[in-house]
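Annotators were shown the component list below and the corresponding predicted structure, then asked to write short factual statements about the assembly.
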Amino acid sequence: MIADTEDMRIRRRFAIVVVMFTVLFVVLMGRFFWIQIVRGDEYRERARVSFTTTERLPARRGKILDQNGEVLAKNVAAFHLKILPHALRDPAVRAPVMNRLAAILTLTHAEKDQLEHEIEDHLENKQGWIEIELGRPLVSTTCPYDGNDLALVTPETAAANALLQCPVCGIVHEAVTGDAERCPHDGARLTWDADKHSATCPKCKRSYVTAPVCPNDGGLLQALDHNLQCPECKRRFTDEVAVLKSSLSELPGVHIETEFVRTYPQPFIASHLLGYMNLVTAEDRAASPGVYPLDARVGRAGVEAALESVLRGRAGEAEYFKGADKSLVRGFRPAESGLDVRLTIDAKLQREVRQAMRYQRSGAAVALDPRTGAVLALYSTPGYDPNVWSQGIPKDVWEETAANPYHPMMNKALTAFAPGSVYKIVTSLAGLDLGLVTPEDTMHCPGYYEFAGRRFRCHARSGHGYVNMEEAIKGSCDVYFYKLGEKIGMDRLAHYGEMFGFGEATGIEIGERTGRVPTKAFHETTPLGFQPGLTLSTAIGQGALTASPLQVARAFAAVANGGHLMQARLVDAYLNENGQVVQRFLPVEEARLAATPEELATIREGLVRVVNDSNGTGKEARLDTVVVAGKTGTAEAAQSRPGADEELRRWLKDDHAWFAAYAPADDPQIVVVVFLEHGRGGGHNAAPVAKVILEAWLRLGLYHPRPIAPGDLEDDEHAGHDHGGDLDHEHASAGGPP
Amino acid sequence: MKRGQSSFLDRTNILAFIVMLALAAVSLLAQSNANYYAGGDYYQRQVIWIVIGGAVFFGAAIIDLRLIERAAYMFYAVCVALLVLTLLIGTAEEQMEFKRWIHLGAFNIQASEFAKLGTILALARYIHADKERLPGEGQPDPSPYDLRDLLKPAAIVMLPMPLILLQPDLGTALMLIFVAATMLLIEGVRRRAIIVSVLSLLVVIPVAWKTGLIQEYQKDRIYKLVDQTWEKVDEETGMIIETRTTQVEQAIWAIGSGGFLGQGNRGANKARLGKLPELHNDFVAPLVAEERGFIGMVALLFLFWIMVMWALRTAQDSRSHFCRLVAVGIASLFGWQVFINIGMVTGMLPVVGLPLPFLSYGGSSLIMWMLSLGILFNIAVKRGRM
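Structure shown to annotators:
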């Protein structure tokens, strides 16, 4: 009995133990279920993140090209030599590395010692990589002194004598024989030292030796086997980057970092147009999260800023395991290069525009294709060097720029100023279209107009006499337009101004000021309120009216092309890395002028006479080869500025000078607007500049005369448009009709 | 199943034998892959230990069980002597302050591994002899153990305990308590004795905590387990020198990365898993879990469970009291050690440092397990008849 009970008890205890262990094992299984199934993804992600390091693969920024593919902005590789001192802690490892580096970089003994000191100093105090300052960039394929592409040394270009460098002082000598009398480079008589071991050329200052011993310090000279030469400065180099990179396996703890630096090969021709780059700010980083690393540079003005998202591309990412042999993790995303931007700008013309503007203190010039609205040149002066601004602006440059009274950072082609008489095309068309005046109607100009108890003067004090519209335009008769403006009225005039695109965005891709077309309502918000006399001022382009040179160019393009108000365009296409067009931008007609061909013809005839009549105000823009049509503008713009010196005060008092032209008058292919801030007279100062630009345009062969064909004349209305379409589809870059 | 006629050919014995071979195979695979991830030559050495262990296993499986009973105290004494020796001339692994090994030419002996088996054998022999004592009418005393009766068995456990704790090796020390408790549970202990024991533990642990008997690093492990934001701060510099994102957290990430099907053979991140400390040893389970996934771990736990269940059945079927106690001891040692090891690498239990039976690398551990399972097979085949 007792034994039985004992047996049962034992069995019960065993059952308890069996259940206990089974439960424990089920708990373990549950734990694995929890970790691996329920939260598996989360733990996997955490494991990935905590054991890997993500390296950013910077994207190549897109280039900016002109319409013919000429490079306006590009990226140049700069190389940085970095050393990890802790990898060189062991002197047995360090010695061969230092010797190899010294040989590749042709370091002098002093430079090598300094480098070693730097490494030892770093070993004691700090962690991580140090960048080695050589006092010059690492040489790769461009000359570190002038940026020219290096050429291989050929037998023809090779120096006749071997080059020898002293490892102590670093001076390079040329080997010559002791009987040489003249410098092999320039033929000057050599100056030999007393014991005939070394000589110098008094002209080119080259040093010659007869034995491989440095004449200065007795160092044993070593032959340089530089195989590259700068075609410009004739200095000779080795592709250090290539040699270093191929030797990296023998150079533990040495690393070459490549950085792309934005460079503008022709810095001053289009600084405002292109803009510049500078360091990303906290706001930029907040505005587009995850796009910019801390040391990124962002486009700040012009195309660089406006097309930042197109140009910058998308940085890639490579994930490495921490510490390990840099084996890649699965998540690897290559960088996507930014798209190249091809502009409608013609760099050749842009350079000529700069030439034409070179004597002007402050102003802008715009060239536009009236058929397409494509901006061919857009220049503002004074300018700045975007290369300097992109490298982190030096303090003195910054202060100098800020103090410059002519505002070098302002793009005056896209800033609104009082347009003056160039605005009279708007008043003319309004008058004709509203039926307030016919082309033949004449008005009398005695030199002034009495209105509301005030005398409104004409710029011609003695008056123009009786003038019709064409004559009024030709002579820029203010009285004619005062009277016309009075009839039109403020708001109707504003309506026509807006029809010409004034007071509105031109459609250009980079930042612009839209200016102002005043209305009664606008003036009522000002302290003085609306005065009827303001209508008269506005009618001749004065008063509260402002317009940018580009807006003026667009309005003249509309007159030139038969009434099509084209959107101004600066960007022709986006191209991928291989130069293939990714996206093409076609001309856009924004609006059409409410004008009959006859009305426009009247105005155009007036514009032709401005330039071509012997007493036209713009006769200084006349060309013999093509008929130019245009309009002068001299806008009163006297300003005062606190702290201005005498000269500046005088300048500020002067009028703005405008000249807007298109050519040829019967087949307009270019609109040129020249604006000179406080440049005095439109006819005397601005028109000659426009003439120089038009001459350059012809000289460059950018004008393509239409082959005269039967029926050509009836086609006038569509010609410009068709031509434009043609050009855009096929030959924007090649130029010229087939 | 027909009882009484057990032999090696008993189906459950064959199953257990196959499971044991399977565990040995898993062990070799895991060690080989651990070599791949973390480097080392543990796989090659584990092969040698399994071969030697195989010989030990067969020796233990055919030896006369009476010989084992007779040698129990001797074995125990040798183990204790080795523990003392370890403290005197023991060596430590690099960077660790633990003295766990006796350096012996080409290999090291970890005495604490054998001490577990020694304690089981000594305890079994003592309890057996104690119960076989014939008070009064010559019947074995069936009454459960009371507090007074527990003193001597407790002394058997407590003799090696401080020696192990001084190494320090909290895991093995705890194992002795768990195993002894399970053995006594099977023997039967009065409720009063259980309550008093538990209460005294509740007193001893805080005292040990306060007096420094529990080492700082062991306290840290418990903090890490409990406090999600645990950080160890250097008092002088104020810098965080260790966070919870250490061993166990990394082990859990590895296990979690395995998901349902696992990353496949050698499919885990070499650089990451290779950095997990003790990958060959205590933390071999995360390796298997990451490679084989949930499915693999269920299978592995099932193998372990079969071994425990078979060992308990062997114990239950044992005719001899001594054999039953030995079998229970080995079964519970196996079961507890699997539970504590996996519980610790999955973050349920503090890291006390216990290898996973069979899978973890270690000559002493493997030989001890081969010896134990050999004895178990011996008992199973003979149905516990001495």
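Statements collected:
1. The longest strand of chain A covers residues 71-83.
2. The domain at 53-68+259-318+326-338 of chain A is CATH 3.90.1310.10 (Penicillin-binding protein 2a (Domain 2)).
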